[in-house]
Design a protein that fits this description.
single chain; alpha+beta; seven-stranded mixed sheet; 5 helices; disordered N terminus
């Protein structure tokens, strides 16, 4: 599993300041037109991080329930009005094997997962992911306090065909982290092969994987959860799954 020698990830700004940026970004788009899906690769739309569908696919799920009648099929996935998926194909199934290199230069393999692990799939190119960044950073910090829970993010492009656009105007994940004032363990998926293997239909997406390597939970953006404390609510969801399966 990922070594926790970086467990106390140091942030240049306190959590309140990190989240303030996300809240302002969200507020800027709440009164505007329906946001473009992060799957378009758009980066400038200020309404990223906003959910406009009353039946939005923004909650934590552990089983694939039938989607509402308002769901729209796109690329083989039933989605809400903003493009977020209602289901996740790998729920209850074994996590496909993948490997790569962390920003730190260390190798990583999914075969080393031996404890409850949260996987964050995201990309600098994705406006919704950038809005979610402070929440992901806060989640990584909180998870670092739990010896039985681990966190890793996977930076992925929209597709192999758009791999050259993966880092947007930042040029690298390191540059993005430096500007934002936070960082967390990140595996680089240079050609979307990990994205494809994990059947990711939306970024950002969070997977909860058990010590046995089974995908036990899924959710999209924390920033659109509707909770006053998205990170705390997600941790509560994780704790419930762990308790139910203990």
């Amino acid at each position: 599993m990922i070594a926790k020698n970086n467990a106390k990830f140091s942030h240049a700004r306190p959590l309140s300041a990190l989240l303030a940026g996300a809240i302002l970004a969200c507020a800027a788009g709440c009164g505007g037109p329906a946001p473009e899906s992060s799957e378009t690769g758009a980066t400038a739309d200020p309404s990223h991080g906003v959910s406009t569908d009353p039946s939005a696919a923004t909650g934590f799920i552990t089983v694939n329930a039938p989607p509402p009648e308002t769901a729209v099929e796109k690329n083989g996935t039933m989605r809400d009005g903003d493009g977020r998926p209602y289901t996740y194909a790998l729920l209850g199934r074994e996590l496909p094997a993948f490997s790569g290199t962390l920003l730190s230069g260390e190798p990583f393999s999914s075969e080393t997962i031996d404890q409850w692990t949260v996987i964050d799939m995201w990309g600098v190119w994705c406006g919704d992911c950038r809005v979610d960044g402070p929440y992901a950073a806060a989640l990584a910090d909180a998870i670092a306090e739990d010896d039985e829970l681990a966190f890793v993010s996977i930076h992925t492009p929209l597709s192999a065909a758009r791999a050259s656009e993966a880092f947007g105007t930042y040029g690298s994940v390191d540059a993005y982290f430096e500007e934002r004032g936070f960082s967390y363990p990140t595996l680089i998926d240079p050609d979307a092969s990990i994205r494809d293997a994990l059947e990711i239909a939306w970024t950002p997406s969070y997977l909860l994987v058990s010590p046995e390597g089974i995908v036990r939970g899924f959710r999209t953006d924390l920033s659109v959860s509707g909770s006053a404390d998205p990170v705390g609510a997600f941790l509560d969801d994780i704790a419930q799954v762990r308790a139910d399966l203990s």
